[in-house]
Automatic annotation (TrEMBL):
SUPFAM superfamilies: Periplasmic binding protein-like I
Protein name per Swiss-Prot or TrEMBL: BMP family ABC transporter substrate-binding protein
CDD domains the UniProt entry points to: PBP1_PrnA-like
Keyword Cell membrane recorded: yes
Keywords: Cell membrane, Lipoprotein, Membrane, Signal
Domain spans labelled ABC transporter substrate-binding protein PnrA-like: 47-350
Secretion signal, residue range per the UniProt entry: 1-18
PROSITE patterns, alphabetized: PROKAR_LIPOPROTEIN (PS51257)
InterPro entries: BMP_lipoprotein, Peripla_BP_I, PnrA-like
Entries under Pfam families matching the protein: Bmp
Compartment(s): Cell membrane
Amino acid sequence: MKAAALLLAGGMALSACASDETSGGTASSGSAGGSASAAALKVGLAYDTGGRGDNSFNDSAYLGMENAVNELGGELRDLTPNEDASNRPELLSQLAEQGFNPVIAVGFAYGDIIGDVASEFPDTTFAIVDSSGVGADGQPLGAGNVTGLQFAAEQGSFLAGVAAALKSTANHVGFVGGVETPLIQSFQAGFAAGAEAAKPGITVDVKYISPAGDFSGFADPARGQIVAQGIFDAGADIVYHAAGASGGGVFTAAAASGKRAIGVDSDQYETVDDPAQKAVIMTSMLKRVDNAVQGFITDFSEGSVTGGSDIVNDLSTEGVGLSYTGGFIDDIKGQIDEYATQITSGAITVPTAP
């Protein structure tokens, strides 16, 4: 499959498109040239909380869809949930009803409803980022027409923990999670394990912006700043966030404190607009949602998607990793690479839960 191969490529430059309002959420649509055989390709994407403009998770998913449509030709449409994200099922149904196929749900929050929607549209192929195409009972979701696009985020976060520990002069680092869920706890677990491996006895403070079930923690930069500031005030000199758009607040707190931060999902040194925020981002844990989405769409266009299964992107496929933009961690790259080799060889098993 090309999904794995595409994990080795793809730029992270983000581009804008026109937008308008449609029932069920904010939508933007466009088309791109391509071969005549791909002209019928219509790709739909439903965002996680906050939608476009988070400089992270959602933007990366859009980039993957945009790259695929630019390469293959066809049409794209993206929809954003309402403020409380209660209309997630309607967004997926709307895209399927309008003939978009495949339809991609961005975020594990769609996991509870995508199976029901997929059952209603058995001729539509669905994918879900950060969740599984298989239910807790081991049976394929929907009509066997859902593919999970998953990531070994704990592995990339382990390397982020290594980098934080090696660069910390305070022997004290921190983690800010957007919402306290098992997925985000896997980022926490990997980060803490990596920090401890690189510098035994290091202090790792952990705080979450919102509890399980309250997804506002992914779209509240003001609260992210307050939470991160508390960690910096307690003595940490580097904070890693897995908090979506709220990460902007973490960067603001780092800048105000004269400290450092670690971004997530995208190379946030490249994606943030604020020079003050950019200056404090020493690295980002890359979760290549863009490549996973692009690879899935490419596989779909070639007829090689079967559904009822998962594609796992990890260090071995370069589906996760660290950015080196800005040169802040170039001097410890050799040590980071050694830990990465131990993970891919199986010598280190990274925990997925705190």
